Each structure stands twice: as C-alpha cells, then as structure tokens.
Amino acid sequence: MITSGSSVIDCFGGSNKLVGQVDEGYEGDVELVTDIPAGVGVRLAPFIFPDHLEYLELRFTLGDTVATVHTKKTLDADALAARQNTRTLKLIDINDNRPVFTQREYSTRVSEDSGGLNDTATLLITVVDFDNLNPFFIHSQYQAFIPENQDGSFHTIQPEPIKAQDGDTGINMTVTYSISAVTPGKYQSNFHMDPNSGVLSVVSALDREEMSTNAITVNIKAAQTDDSLKTGVAVVTVTIEDVNDNPPEFDKSEYTVQLLENSPVNTVVLKVTVSDRDQGGFVGTLSISPESVPFSIDSDGTVRVKDSAALDRETLDGIAFYILANETAPPYYTTEAYVSVELLDENDNSPVFNRSKYEGKVFPPQEVGMSLVQVKAEDPDAGMNGQITYTIEFGNEDGYFFLHPETGEITLAKIIPLVENSILEFPLYVTATDGGIIPRSTSAQVHIQAPGDSNPQFLQKVFHGTVMEEQDPGVFIIKVQFLSIAPVVPVVLQVVTESDKFEISDSGEMTTKTKLDYDEAPHNYSVSISLSDGMNSDTAIVEVQVTDINDNSPVFESGSVEAWVPEDADVGYNVTDVPATDKDSGFNKEVRYSLRGGEGRFSVDPLTGTVSVAADLDREAKAEYELQVLAEDQGRPVRSATASLLIRLTDVNDNVPEFSKTEYDVEVPEMASVGTSLLTLSATDPDEGLNRIVSYSITQQTPSSDPPVFEVDSSSGILRLVQALDYSKVNEYHLMVQASDGGTPSLTGNSSVVVKVKDVNNNPPVFSKTNYDVAVPENLASGASILTLEVTDRDEVTFYSCYNTFKNRPGGFSNGYFLLDSDTFDINKQGVVSLRKDITLDRETKDSYILQVMAVDQPVDGLNATAQLNITVQDYNDNAPQFLMIPDPLLIAEGQYSEENPGEVFTIRTTDADLGLNGEVTLSLASPHPVFRFREDGMLLAVGPLDRESREMYDLVVKALDKGTPQRENFTTVRVKVTDINDNRPEFSSNRYVSSVLLKDAEDGKLLLTLSATDKDAGNNSVITYSFIAGDSPYLAINSETGKVTLTSDLADVTEDTTLDLTAMAKDNGQPPLNSTARVVVNLRVHSLTEGVAFASPSYNFSVPENEAKGLTVGRVEASAESDLYSVTYKLRTHVDLFSIDAGSGVIVTGSELDREQQEWFILDVEAVDNRVPPMSAIAVVRVQVEDVNEAPHFPSDLYKASIFSIVPYKTPIMHLKASDPDVGDEAHLVYSLTADSPYVDVEPQSGLLYVVSAVGLDGQTVAVDVRATDPQKLYATVKVEVEVLASASSSDIVSITLNQPANVVEKKIPEMQKSLGQVLGWTVNIVDVSSGGAAASRALRQDVKTLVTFFAVDEDEVVSSEEVVNKLDSHSAAVTAELVKVFGEGLQYDLQEEPLSPPSNMGVVIALGVMLGLSIVGLIVTVTLIVRFKRSEKHADSDKESFHISKHSEGYT
Fold this sequence. Notes:
With 1454 residues, the protein is mainly beta. The chain has 6 helices and 112 strands. Strands 10-8-16-15-12 form a 5-stranded mixed β-sheet, with no helix packed on it.
C-alpha cells in the first residue's frame, strides 16, 4: 500500500499532520508542501530522531511556493522501527524477508531403549519459498514526457524505465502489464502499454493547445501470469511538452490612427496586443518596417514617436508602415499588421517674408495715398493657420504711413515735413500674423527715406593739408567735409585755383596732378575749391604745405682702401681712416659709419670713420680681412654708400714648435748594432720664414751614461744607437728631446722617447697560488673582471726608474699569455679572469664552477704552468615573485566594511625562486585603494563600504614585492565581484502618472497606463510587485506583475468629469522587502480630452530705459493650462544672456545693463509648459524697446604717454586721440580741445590729432596737457596726455622696400603688411612710413607705380639691426613675396631698397621713431579702443538694415 500526500504549510502558526503511508522499500516523493509565501525559506529539521534525515531530503528553490519531500535512500521499517516525527509516515511491513534458521544444520539423537542398544541418523531440513507475495513496480510514481503532435514511445521516463517484478524471491513469476485507467478519461484511447515489456507509448498524437490540462495521469498495473489477482500498481504522470507550432497573432490585422503633427518624442501613437497559443504566449521581438519611419515600438507593443521633426504635415500628410512580430524560437514564425497614421495640422509655421528688408522713398510732390512699397509673406499651414494679416507694429507713431492688412501695400497717409540738406529716415517694423487659434507672427523691417531740399555747404571755410615734394601725381592730401543729400541729389566739387597742380573728387578727396618741387617752387599753396548741385553752390580754401625730403647719398673719398696691421696689434690700434661726405644739410647731412664683415675683429668710429682693432688677431688663423664700410645719412628715408677695406696681417714669432707625439715608443733587441736608426722625430711651427725652421736635440737620458747611448740628427730628427745595449743592466731608457725654431728669441717644444730593450726566454712562469677560491654575485655584469692571477718569470727582472714611473710586474711576465677552457669565463693576457661578454650567471641553474688555468710565457716555444680556479656563485635577487592560481572573480557580499570591521575576500599565495630575504614576499596593491588592502598573511581585505549598485566589479592591480636588494616585484590583476543584498528600494520612472479617458471609450479591461519601476538590486531583490495602497477606486485595477492599470468596468455609472487620485506602491521580493510609492491620476472625461496651454495674448510690448542696473522688471506674461489639474512654468528661449523670467510668475527682468546705442530692440520668445504627461506648451513673442538716455563721451584710457625729439618741426603729429560716444551719431560730431592753452602742443578740433607747436629747449622734460572731447549736448570727457621730449636718436636700423602698389592702397593695409612680414621674419615689424616714389634705385620692379615702405623690426625688447633684417629678407625672399601676395593679390612685386626712391619727408625717421617709441605702451590701449569703436561703428552703420532705430532724420555728412 502506497499513499504519500500533500499539505499546506503554516509558516507562522505551525502544524503537525499525518502525511500518509507507504510500503517499506519505497523510493520517491513523500509529500508535496504548498502555499509557501514568496521569499520565505523552507528546510527539513530533525525532530526526536535526528538520524531520520538520512532517509529524506527537501527539494526547494528560494522564491518558489511549492516544495517536495523526497527519499534519499530506500525506506526500511526495521531500521526506522516505530520512530515518528512531526511529519509522521507510517510504514507497513511487507513479506520481504525470508525465514532465517539460526544455524544451517540441526542434529539430535533419537534412541530406542531396547536393552541398551541404539542407533543414530542425521536429519536435514530444507526451507522452500512459498508464492504468497504480489508483484510490485520498482517505483510507485513515474513521470513521462513527449512533445505534442508526436506519437510512439516516450523519449523520457523518470526516474527510470517502467519495470515490475514478483515479490517472491525463489519463484519470480513473470508479469503482464496493462493500463487500468487514464485521467481525464477522454484520452484513454491515446495510450497503449505493451503487456510483455511494459513499454508505454502514445498511439494517437495530442495537441497541447487543444487540451484542458498539460498533464495526464495514467494508472498502470502488473499482474502475475499464473494468478491475475496478484497485482501491483503505479501511476505515470504524462506531460505533453509544448512545440512552437502556432504563429503569433495581432488583436487587429490593420490599425488606423490620427496624430497631431510635431508630437513630441515618446508620444504614444497606439498600442498593439500580440498573443500566441503556444506555451508561454508570444516570446519574441516587435519591430517596425521600414525602419526609416519616425516611430518606434516598445516590447509591450506601445508605438511611440521617435523623430518629432519628421512629423511635418506640410511635407507629408500621412505615414504607413508595418509592425512585425518575430518569434525568437524555431521555426521563427513572423506575423505583420498594417498601420496607417494620418497627420493632423498644427499651427507650427510662422509667416515668412519674401525679403528680409524692404525699401521705399517719398518723392515730391507728395500725395496722400501714393504707393511706396509692398510687403509679402507666405505661410504653408492649412486653413486659418495659413491666412495672413499685415500690421505696422512700430515706427509709425506720427501716422505718416498706411499698411493694407490683406495686400501688404504701404501708402502715404499724410504729408511729411521735409528738412533741407537732410534725408528723413523711417524704419518701420511690419508684422505678418497668421489666423491660428494661437497665432504665430513674423516681422520685417521697411526702410523709407524722405529727402529734403538740396543746398550743399562746406563744413569749414579753410582746410589744411600737407604733401611731400617729388611724389608722382595722385598723392592724397586731404578730404574736405561738406553737407549734401547725395546721392539723391548729386554734387560736383572743383578746384578753382591752382587747378594745374591739384584736383578734387566728388567725395571730397584732394590729390596732386603733378610732381611738386620744394626747392624750385613755392612751399605753400592756397587752393580755392567749389561745391555745387547745379542749383546751389559754396566755396572754401585749402592751405597746402609742401615739405622737403632727403635726396643725396654720402660719398667716400675712395671706394677701395688697403691697410697692413701686425698680428700682435693691441685692441684700439688705429688701422686707417675711411671718411665720407654728404651734400645735404641738417639731419640729411649727418653721416654715421658702420662695418660689415671682419668677424668682430675690427670696429669703426660711427662719427669719424676711423677703423681700429677691436679684438685679438692671429695671422696663423686668418691672414687678411675684407670689410665693407657703410656710411648712412640721418635723412628720412636713410641714404647710404659703401667702401671696401682690405686689411692684411704681418707675422710675429708667437708659435712654439710642436712634436707630432707627446711621447715616442720604440723596442730595440739588446743585440742591436751601434749606428742603428731607431725612429724619426717630427715637429712643426706654423710661423713664417726663420720663425718656422726647426732643429732637434736630446736634453736628458735616463738612466744617464757617459758617453750617451743615443744621439739625434739636428736637422732630420733621426734617433740613432751610438753605444751597445745590455738587457741585464738596463731594460728601458727614457729620453727628453727638444725642437727649437729660428725666431728671435727662439721658441722650443719638448717630447719624450721610451726605448725598451728586448730580452731572451729560458725560465717557465710560476703562479702565486696553486688554487684560487673566489665568490661572485650571480648578477655579475657580462665582461666583468673576477680576479687577477699573479704569475712571475725569472727571465724578466724588476726595474724601477728613478722617477718611479715605469715598472715591470714583479718577477716579469710581459710577453706571456693565459689559456682557460670555459664557455662561461675568459682570461686576458694580463691574467684578469672575467665573465664572457655574451654570458650571464644564474645561481638557480648552476651555483659553482671548477676551472683549470694555464700560463704560457711567450707565443712561440713558450714555457707554461697551471693552477685551479674554484668559483662560487652567490645568490642575487634576480627572480620576481610569482602568483599561484587565483579564482576569477573573487566574491564578497556588499556591506559597510571598515578598518575596524574588515571583510575577508581571498588569500593570495606567491612563490619566489631566490634565497633568504630575496625569496621573502609581501603583498600590496599597486596603488593605495580606499576600499581594499592586504593583511600580512596575504588575505585581501575590504576596509571600505561596498555598494554593488554603485559598482559591481573592481579590477585591482596586486603587487608582490620581495625583500631582496634590489627589490623585485610582480603584478597581477584580480577582479573582485560584489554580490547583492537587498539595500535598494524600487524607483518609479515618474513620481506621477496621469491618464485621461472618455467615458464613451471606456470598457472593462481597457489599459489606461503602465507603471514602471526599477530596482538597482539583483535576483529576487529586484523582482517588483505593484499594488494600490491609498485612494483605491472600484473603477481601477493594477496588475501586480506588469504594473498595468486597467478599467474594471465600462464606467456607465459615471455622469460627470471625475478625477481619480491614487497612490501606487512598488515592493521588491528581498528580505526584508523594500518599497516606494507614486501618485496615479486618472481623468474620467464626459465630452473632450483636448486641453492645451495658451497665453493671454500672443504678443507683448514692453519698454525699459537704457543703462539701468540688472534686475529691472520688464513686464509680466501670463498663460494657463485650461485645467486646474496642471500648473504652468515659463522659460526664455532667446536672449537668455540679457533677460531672465521667473518660472512661476512669468515676470521678465533684465540680466545686465542695456545700451540703446548697441541694440534698441529685443525680440524674446517665451515658452509656457504645463506638467501633464506628455507636456503641452505655447510660445508668445515679447518685444522690448530700450529707451535712449543721453550719455557723455568716453576715452578708453585715463592717461596717454608719447615721446618726441626736441628738434621736430611745427605740426609734427604726436598721436591721434579718439573718444567714443555711446549716443548714436554723436561720435562723429565730437569736438576736441585743450582745457588750457599750451605753447608746446595743440589738438585739431575735428580729428583729435595732437601735434607739436614747439619743443625747443625742452630736452629731457615732460609736457602734460588735458584734452577734452565735447558732444553736441555739451557733455564732455577729459584725458591727460604726457609727452616726453628726448634729446637725440639714430636711424641706422630702418629698412626700406618698394612695392608696385599705389600708396593709398598700401596705407589701408599697413596692419596686414606688418603681420605678414612679422610671420616671415619671426620678429615684430613696425611700419614707419608709406610714401610714393620714382624708379631710381629699384633692382627688380618693372611697373611705373611704386610705393616706398620703411620699417624696423623688434625681437622681444631689442631693435634688430638693419643688416640682420636685410639678410633675412634676402634669404626668405620667396616667403616674403608669398605673404605679400596674400595681402595685395597676384602680380605683387617687392624689392629691397638700397637707395631711396624719392624724398618723402623732411621730418625724418628720427621723428617717426621717437613718436613710435612713445606710443609703444599706448598701442595696446589704442588697438582695443579701435576694436570697440569699430564694433560700435559697425552697429551704427548697419542700423538701417537690422535695428529698429526710430530716428526721424540723419544729416548728410560726407
């Protein structure tokens, strides 16, 4: 009898139940435990009899709600006896043990009392089995598996194939198998069991999708063939396995939806539902085809907008695509559904004008209604969104103009009062607005001019100009200023007097018509000029001053000079005079001398032209010098001449004879004969004549002898033997020799000669030891010496010189050598034993060597001796530690670890092949780590907090370091993985979810929205369950697993707009569980879902005064979300650097000071956004006008400094002072003046040019003046100017080049020229002057137009000499041309000017240099001023085009 059972567990109250009963010998499931709470752990525990756990086990996975108690081994009632536990399992004894005799044989005596006679017999009893037991199956329960749609045998039966056998042992009767019952019964015919083999099979395939259950119970029976009443039973649970035989299905085959164009990204378009009849439903992916459409699809079937920009109805009114459901399991079924999206129009296009600016003119006679100009705009939107209305927003305050709202035609509304010599200008701001519910608009500017009567007039009656003599016609002199309304009414300017010499253009530029001569013609001209428009005229006088130029070059008395100088001449020795003269006068006549060449050995007096010695001379190094003497005048530009100078040096006996060697060596056999030549001495002397003739002599012989052993030939230097040699007496001689020249006095040089006497061999060598013991470190360098073996030879004797300098080794072995047979070590001729150069030692491979060394005293017929060398290799720390195997990764649970409470990760083991301290290893991290460190025993510890959600993996570099010297190390990388604990709450994707539904669309089960929460934890800790915990509504339900919120009814009982406000909770399955909440708002609407954001007005107009501090309130905009459920926030989309808006109130304030002269109008786009999901928004246009406030002029600096020379003439320019006026137009009308009259300097009222009146007698003094700039409203600014008066200056560093470009073109491009030349030369280039000139001294120019450019170069703070600049210009000629072409264009030619083209000015380079020196500091300030001024001027110049300046007129200054 077998009856195991199932029970419901009570994890909180406890229970004690009888499960059932089974026969002993049973193996299989004992109990099925159900209703285990999710996340609760279950285990078997001992109760009364602990050893009973040896027979049972619990099969359970944390998170499951069901557990199974299963046998671990066969149940035996005899072993378990009557024991029981809280899960009582009663065992019924079966006849499974045969009787057992206590012994195999029994014997007894049977006697018959017959008078004392008896007999004995043995009785043997055999016990035979009786057929009293039923057959039984090996297991009482089986599980069988077969795929659906398949018949035949089961491919899997657990725990093993079905088998039954007779319960009796000896008889073992065969059995017959059969099916006794099938549940459900309708599947009885689908199964068959072979009666003989017991094989269970399916005879009719089953379709899992058509079955009401996945499992079928088959009861089987086994009966003995001899007695059908003796049976055993078992149960087979048949599982029909699912096969993917059904394609996925959409809830619709086609979908049609409408979508508002420009819908934001992630807007939900529709949601499709995909199902699959196979087990598990649809498992696969959803995709959209083609991928180019602007939509995406989520895994839950929600189609969203992915590209808002592509939803443009004006481009495409509809989009069609397919949604594909693709299975991820074979055979990969695919189903598609067609989707058609119709785009609804939104007013998303503003009207666009066909021109950015319109212009019109009012001509007399004026007539009301006369057409001036027509504007036109287009809007691609549909219906009312595309209908346009025109209005004049600003600029028509006087009502002179009328704009037709439909046609855009602008006509004259009333007569305009015109002003003489002025063109009234009317910038109108025209707006085109479409007819959308929230209208959009665009603005354009219309510029209308109304010229008055013409009466041209000069601004001054007398003008002043200056021009240099001898310049080609066309030189600019001055530009006169006048009033007119040109070009509306053209004017003509003419030269009335001196018209043969001067001419004037209609723009007022006066130029020369011929060359002017300062020497032969007047120095000043009064030129009368006239101005006329054909009806009215005016006259003025131009005073023209002609200035002189430098036109004569210096001239040398002789163009070639030769001089002789002794080579020992002292510094300062006068070589010769090279004078030059100049016919000019003043600065132009003064000559300055300089030298070119001479290697710095000579100098020239810059004033007298006397050449002298500047450095030591050496004829032997260089015998003559060729120099160029340069004479330059001090004119402007500089003129120069050159003369050649040849200087020859005469010889002096100043060199000592020098031997070819400092010591000579020679070896002589002791049997050499007298007269033998030993060697030839050689000495040389670089002097000339007798000073270089050399004679030789011996000054000393060591050891000495009488007579001497050697002599030398005084002329040839041959050293000879003059006495016999004896090795036994002297084996080495040292001679001192001398070489003397023939000079007076004579100079001598010395050398030495070593003469070695050669011996004869007859004694073998002898080692100092028979055995040598030496220890060497294993890191011994290749080729390093170990020891030196000492060997003596009686054939050689020790000899010491008297100087104790030369010495044989004791005993002598000078010609001997050593033999050593070793692949590791080597020995040289001196007996030095060393490690071979290509060999290194390794103690771990071999720690000692025994070698035999032989010493041979000479190469031929030599005698020898041997010795033994014992070498021990000492350990050196040459092995790095090695790591043993380390798991990857190392695991540690996340937690709050610290130094006081560390967490153990893993013990890392290492080895090291070295000995002693060299093999002792310590572990550490390669760089300090805030979380991990090592313990002394190699245990890796966590000493800082670990948070898996912040970081799950750590890659640590571990360093193993031994204690040797030097220390060796090894590195490895270990990966530490932090395992999870439940320490993170679920987080909703939003803290608020909002959905709306029309009551007419409501139905039971309708999906309203899906809550989504994530949990940073892993495993069960991240499994989330959703529920409502507050504000529960009978209309809503939430899926605990998916978070989907659906309707529970069709809302038939709701009759008015209702808002459901609930609180949802997301709870994880960790222990203990954590949770978070979110607000869920569902709007039940009766009529419409349409809500939006709208401003109270589509546009706002505000004004603020200029120059107010930031934070000034501009105005307030207001918008509403058309529902109390939503709030509106504001933000600026333009000009966020100058304005800001309060996000809650809509109040706009300034973010910085505003300047009307920089910009008068600002157009702001303000966006209002509500907080619905997805949000709605609207945009309003805010126009802000900056009102004008009169402001004073301003100098960019409080102090200007300049320098001039005391000799400069009247009207010499010092600097241009330039003030700026922030008020529009006033800057051109600033008047400059001195606050107090000065006898030294003055300023031009219109230009601001500060010039010299007189600097005579002011050498070394500083002149200080205050300069005032006054605007037409009498506001002014004052600046201090300090002018330093210098005594003198030099112009030798000025360089001149000529260009084939007009002077006025070159003048305009001075900054670009300075930059280009500076890039090539690598210095800072300063252009001094630009002037017109002839073709006198040009070397390469071929065109008639030539302009002279003079400049100097500065390297850091030092002026570069003109010689260096000229040399660099010559060597970089191609690069210079290429850079200048970039400035002036193709065809540019330049030439280095050696002589001036024509006299440009008598002010001189000295003046220009002086002024530029003074301006060097001010230059940066002036540059910044010009940049600022340029930006302001550019803004003013463009005001007609881009600003909304409402000025009524502007005067016609030219």
